Amino acid sequence: MVFVYASLGLLILLLAGDALVKGAVNLSLRVGIPALIVSLTIVAFGTSAPELLISIKAAMEGAPGIALGNVVGSNTANVLLVLGIPAMITVMHTSQCDTRKSFVQMMAATVLFIALAFRGVFDWMAAALMLAVLAVILASQLRDALAHRAAGEVVEDLEEPEGADPDMPWWKISLFLALGLIGLPLGADLLVDSAEEIARMIGVPDAVIGLTLVALGTSLPELATTVMAAIRRQADVAIGNVIGSNLFNLLAIIGVASLITPIEVAPGFLQFDLWVMLGSSLLLMPFVFFGRDLTRSWGVVLSVLYVSYVVIVLT
């Protein structure tokens, strides 16, 4: 039953996160916040809400391995699996995308995250630094988006947040917000408690469950989005989704969670998992800088690497 509870917790988290995003987006539009600002802030934070709640609850319950494993494992899965599986379905013409600036920002955040991890704990000082860096990056993205708009260029993914309906009635907005705010902590409770129980059952550290079961589960929305983007030949959306998600995982989730309660870093992360996360991120360089398309062969390579990583972690 513990696996059923874990699956139920994950499902509640995903549905509640979606409801919260819809409610927050439409509330913002109704009170006059521009769609551009909504996309860069509310949507980005809202889609990371499940991971944030998991990390906060796990850290507060004395399971920092789940809190940190969720982020590190998700970032590794985002590159190797979330890009690998869609690439096996159809070739993604990433050579036509310009994601160099976002990639450099993601790599800078990754290096900063690893450097802070070697302090042994993510505390309020690390949190303040990560959130400050995130604010600078968001301000940079906002300037770029406004410059594109001023130049008459279309920025579709920023202009129309998913689930936006300026005419949505207030009762419906309130319902979405209520479902999200109630469902997120409920789902986090179920998933974290179940993950801890599974770790005890099979005799592995909670970090292993965080790096595998929890991380894979919370990467499912990114996987679904990327598969659909690949099918629609929107390679820029696919790779941008992964880079943006990784950036928020590193800076926002651990930043906010460690602002609430310190998160200790287990030695295993410093010896292996953080370097796998860094290495998987560097694998994006040929597609970002050197005009290589993400072909089916690359998709197989990335997917095999992820399966190999999970096997090593579990054993």
Automatic annotation (TrEMBL):
Pfam families: Na_Ca_ex
Record has Membrane as a keyword: yes
Protein origin, superkingdom: Bacteria
Gene Ontology cellular component annotations, sorted alphabetically: plasma membrane
InterPro entries: K/Na/Ca-exchanger, NaCa_Exmemb, NCX_ion-bd_dom_sf
Residue ranges occupied by any Sodium/calcium exchanger membrane region domain in the UniProt entry: 3-141, 175-314
Membrane-topology annotation of the record: Multi-pass membrane protein
Location(s), subcellular: Membrane
GO molecular function: calcium channel activity; calcium, potassium:sodium antiporter activity
GO biological process terms, semicolon-separated: intracellular calcium ion homeostasis
Keywords recorded for this protein, A-Z: Membrane, Transmembrane, Transmembrane helix
TM annotation in the entry: 33-54, 66-89, 109-139, 170-188, 208-231, 238-260, 272-290, 297-314
Entry keyword Membrane: yes
NCBIfam families in the record: calcium/sodium antiporter (TIGR00367)
Protein name: Inner membrane protein YrbG
Naturally occurring in which organism (per UniProt): Maliponia aquimaris
Gene: yrbG_1
